[in-house]
Structures are given as C-alpha cells and as structure tokens.
Amino acid sequence: MHSVIERLEKMEHEYRRQILHAAFGMLVFAFPFLDVSTLLLLSFLIIIVLAYFPEYPVIAKFLYRKPEPGSREELTDMNDGVRSARNLAVSVFTMLLISQMLQFTPLDFPLYVIGGAIAISTFGSSAATFIRHRTRIHLNGAARRINGGGDQHLLPSSIVMLGIGIVSAFVAGFWIAGWGTLGVSREMVNMIFFLAVIGSITGALFESIPSKVDDNISVPLGAGMAMWLFHAFGYSVPPSEMFMALMFSLVLGYLAYRARIADLSALFSASLLGVLIIVFSDIFWFILLLTFFILGGAFTKYKYTYKESIGIAQSKDGVRSYENVFSNSMAALVLAILYGIYPQYSELIIFAYLGTVATATGDTLASEIGTTARSQPIMITTLKPVRAGVDGAVSVLGEVAALLGAMVIGVLPVLFGRVDGALTVIFITTAGGFLGTNVDSLLGATLQHRGMLSNSGVNLVATFAGAFISGILYLLLV
Fold it and tell me: Residue 26: which domain range?
C-alpha cells in the first residue's frame, strides 16, 4: 500500500513539473511583443534564479519533491529538477544570443525558428514525458524487462513528442511570423511547416539517444540548429507533400524497428533522412538508400551465430543505431540536398549519389559475408594473412560480395527507368561502390588501426570517396 501511494505521489509531482515545463513554452507567444535583447535578459534572469535560489518555496514546490529533509532522495530530486529547468533556460539563452549576434551579419536566426524549437522542447517533451510516465506506471516495471532494458516502451512517447512537436512548432512559428502583418504568405506557411517537421524529428531523435547530456539542452539546441540550417537554404515544399514524405519514411522506419534491424534512434534517423531526401530529390532515391539498409540488416543476420562465436558479430544482435545510419548515409543526404538546390548539376549529383549508396552497400556485404569465408583473409596493405574481422582485412568472398552489392544499386535505377544508358550507369555505380569499399578497407588498415578514425568515421569518409569516384567517372565517360 505504501509503495502504491509513493508511486502516485511521484506521478503527481512529475505531472506538476511537466505542466510547469510546458508553461515555460508559453513564452514563445510573447516573442512578437519583445525584442531579442529583452528576451535575452528575461532568460538570463531565469537562469540566475534557478542557479541561486533553488530552494525558494515556489521553485521547490514545482521542481522537486521533499520526501524527508536531508535525505539523499531529496537532494537527487532537487538537483535533477532544478538542473533540467536551468538547462532549458540556458539553451533558450544560447539561441537568442546567436540570433542577437547575427544581426550584425548577413545571416539570420529568426525568432519564429527559436520559438518553434522552444515549443518542441516544452510542449512536445512534456507530452512525451506524460505518456512515458503513465506507460511505466501501468507496466509496473515490465518495460524495463523488455529486451533486457530495451526501448520499446519509449516508442509511444517518442511518437507523441513528434506529433505534438510538429503542431506546437507550427502554431508558434505561425504566431510569431504572422503577428503585426496582414497575413503569412503561402511560401512562409510552407517554410514554417517544413521546419516544424525537421525540428520535431530532430528533437525526437536527440531524446531517443542515450546520453549524459540533459535532454533540456540537447533537444532544443538540436532542433533549433537543424531548423536554422534548413531555414538558411530557403527551400521548402507544400505541407501536403511534407506530410506524405514524413508518413512514408516514418512507416518504413517503424517496420525496420519492428523487424529488429534498427533501434529507436535509428528509426528517427532514417525518418529524418527519408523526409529530407524525398523533399529535396525524389522518393526513389530514398527507396534506393532503403535497399542498402534492408540488405545490410538481412546479411547482418547471415550466419550470425558463427560470427558471434568468433567475436566479430555486429553488437546488439545486429540492431543498427543512429551512428550506423548517419555514418553510411550522410554523403547521400548531402548529395540529395545539393540535388534540390542545384538542379543544373542533377546528372552529376545522381551518379555521385549512386556511388555513395553502392559503397555503403558493398562495404556492409563485404563485412557481413566476407568474414564467413573459409579461406584466411589478408591485410589490404601488406597482403599478409590475418584473422577474420581485423580492420583492413579482405577476402575473395568479401570482394565478390562488395562487387555484387554495388552492382545491385546500379541495376535498380536502370530497371525502374530512372536513368539513361544502362551499361554506363551500372559500370560507374559498381566501380564507385567497389573502389569505395576498398577505400574503407584501406582506411581501416591505417587510420582506424592507429586510432585516428572510428569505424563510423571510416564509413563516413569511404562513402564520400565512393561518391567522388563515381562523380569523376561520370565526368570522364559521359
């Protein structure tokens, strides 16, 4: 009975704290009436109050419980509550300070973008916390036993954060951008909704990543910086197209999550990539990237027990995280954005895109299939025999797998009639992917072996190398 009462008290306190947290987001509706300097001063005063008066009765009532004076639980709860509120104020102050400094430059960090980021990290995060807290109460600890402490119980709250974040960021942005004018143009509405979706996915992504950094810093700053970046491009699409792109990429990401190919952070990473690639280029190019993820996930499971027995299997039972998604797809994302901004170079960018996806596919298949070869692999730099799984090790089976994986990426756009010149496309894509895969092995044997690059860093550089090689071949042959 006592434990039930205690849980109810904790739930009531958490709800009260989140209501205050969400109330902080109401500050965005004052943005049209205050200049940046005044907002800076206001956020600075909040930081000072939370830093020097954490035990003031009003603050204490909302930010932390007091089970018993002097207890460790009281101190921990107080520190967590005050620190979270202070970190949110610090993140707001940081964005306002950047906006103020940029007033003296050609760049612009508009208040409606900052307001959208605040809305996501207050209304969106608070709604997510409500759902998460209720789920944990109802499961009564069962959630912590799912997958040995997995994140399946966090999915509903993350989806709620995404939805509430999009709506609240759009409303806040529309309010701030439209106040004092006769209306907001259609182009401005498109931009506000576009940035609301980008910021909300980014916020949900940051919240899903286990980190020592408080969410009340990472979520608003991450969402705000992502929104600012794409605001600078000046590129947007109608809300209907943006919504369809979001639903398509989110559903595919969810299917990968349910199939145990991706974790929660990978789900939102893939969703963010999908939305951006679809709106900046074309849905087919995202499907092409998705082909890499499907092949990679499938062949990660290939002879997994054997690979695990010799200590070279992918960790987490082959489930991919945001690091794997971004390290293998960042080059593709950059090229997709360039495709939308510089359509006059579309053919060159398409071939470079094919090269980077072919490299990611070839490298993954070479790693997952090549390590199961019966013959002993050799080091790419010395040609001396080494054990399977060593950075820079290559085998005949792995090279064949890389060649075939890269070729699959080259064949798909030909089969779907997306490009002209079948043999040229297949050759350039396969060559870029195969050579890019071997660049990956070379970097693994040198920079990664010396600790200068991580595995994710090697993947990132190699995929850019594959894009560069295919781009050069296009310029030479087409």
Answer: 2-236
